[in-house]
C-alpha cells in the first residue's frame, strides 16, 4: 500500500491512513511519501544553499521545524510519544542545519530532499506504537538501490529486502518511498515515479498479491475532469493502456513505475484515501477487446518539421536526423514521414535552438511551439474496423498538425494547438463515451 503526500498531509490524514492499514486482514507493506509541501520546502532549502545564502535556508528550516512540532502536538495523545516525536523532529532539523556550514553540491541536496520521507514514516511509526499496533519500520536506504545508469537493481533489492524482513518479522512493515542509495552507496532517489516506483519494486520483490496506490481521487478517469464534463472512473486497464495514459498526461500514475509490477504479473489498484470504499481502477495484464478506455492530453509539446528534396530515397537520412536528437539527449514523442520530409514532436525544449541549427544542415526547418498531444487509448488494433474513424470524426472541427496511429495497438494520437485542447477533449468524450 503506497500513500502519497496528500494522503499523509496532515495529522488527521495520518490517523486516517493508520486506520486503513491496521484494518487489513492480510500482512501489509506500507510505502509513504513525504507530507505534502515538505519536499518543496526541502528543495527550497537546497536552492538557498546553492546560492550560498545560509540565512535563507535556516529560515525555511525553522519554519519546517515549527510546522512539524505543531503536527506532533496534534497527532499524539500521550506525553511519551509527543516527546519522542518532538525529539526526532529536532534531530532532523539539526541535521538539516549542518548543511548550512559546508560546501553544497547535488550529493548534499539529495540527502536533504530524502528527509521528507524519513519524517513522515517515523511519525507514522510513532503513532502506530502509541496505538499499541506492532509495526516494523524499515529504512529504504538499507535495501533500495539504483545502478550506475540510475536504474533500480532488482536483484539487489530482492535479496537485501528479504534479509531485512527476516530480521524483523511482522505483519505490518513501513518504509519510505522515493529514496534509495546509488551504486556508490550515496543517498539518491528514484526520480521517475518516486514513491509509486518504490511500491512497484517492493511489490515485485516480495511477490505481493496486489500493489495499491492510494491518492486523493477515485482511480484513473476516462478524460481530464478539469476540462471535460461527465468523466467517469475507469474500472480496468491493462498495463500497456495504463502506461500510454500515464505518459500522455494522466498524472495519477507514472509510466515507468508500473513496469516491475507488469513483469511480475502483479495487479496495481488505484484507490482514493478520502473514499476508501470506492472501487478505484485496477491495472493488470487482462486485455478487454473492442473497447476504447480513455483520453488524455500532454502539454508543452514542440513540433519540428524538416523538409528536404535530398531526403527522397536517401539512405541514412533519418539516422542523421535521429542522431542529432540523441546527441542532445532529447527523446521524440511522435513522428510522421513523407517522401520529402519528416515531422517530429518533443516535450523538452532545453536544446531546441541547437537541434534546429544542426537540422538546418539537411533541409528547411519549421518549428511550432505551444502544442499539445491528445491521445485516445484502448483496444486500437487495426483489425477493429472503424475505431480510428470514430476518433478522427470527433476531431473534425479541430486543426490537427500530426496524427500517429499504428505504432501501438493501444493508442492513436493527435498533435494540436494547446489552445484547442479543451475543445478536443470535450469533443472526444461526447463522441466516444457520451453518445
Task: Outline the fold blueprint.
Blueprint: E1 2-3, H1 11-22, E2 28-32, H2 38-50, H3 54-75, H4 79-98, H5 106-113, H6 115-130, E3 136-137, H7 154-167, E4 172-176, E5 179-181, E6 187-189, H8 194-206, E7 211-215, E8 236-238, H9 239-247, H10 259-264, E9 268-272, E10 281-284, E11 292-307, H11 317-327, E12 335-337, E13 341-346, H12 352-359, E14 364-378, H13 387-394, E15 400-405, E16 411-417, H14 421-433
Parallel strand pairs: 1-2, 1-7, 2-4, 3-4, 7-9, 8-10
Antiparallel strand pairs: 5-6, 9-10, 11-13, 11-14, 12-13, 14-16, 15-16
Helix pairs in contact: 1-3, 2-3, 2-5, 3-4, 4-6, 7-8, 13-14
The gross shape turns out to be globular
Describe the biggest sheet? 8 strands, mixed
Radius of gyration: 24 Å
Distance between the termini: 37 Å
The proportion of strand residues reads 15-25%
Mean pLDDT: 92
Low-confidence spans: none
Spatial strand order of the main sheet: 3-4-2-1-7-9-10-8
Q: N-to-C SSE series?
A: EHEHHHHHEHEEEHEEHHEEEHEEHEHEEH
The helical percent reads: 25-40%
Give the number of helices.
14
Structural class: alpha/beta
Number of strands: 16
Describe what is shown at a glance:
This protein is of the alpha/beta class and 435 residues long. Helices cover 40% and strands 21% of the residues. Helix 7 (154-167) links the parallel strand 3 (136-137) and strand 4.
Question: What does this 3D model show about the protein?
Answer:
There is one protein chain. This protein is of the alpha/beta class and 435 residues long. It contains 14 helices and 16 strands. The strands form 3 sheets. An 8-stranded mixed β-sheet has the order 3-4-2-1-7-9-10-8, sandwiched between helices. A 6-stranded antiparallel β-sheet has the order 12-13-11-14-16-15. Strands 5-6 form a two-stranded antiparallel sheet. Helix 2 runs antiparallel to helix 5 (106-113), helix 3 (54-75) runs antiparallel to helix 4 (79-98) and helix 7 packs across helix 8. The chain is globular, with a radius of gyration of 24 Å. The two termini are 37 Å apart. The mean pLDDT is 92.
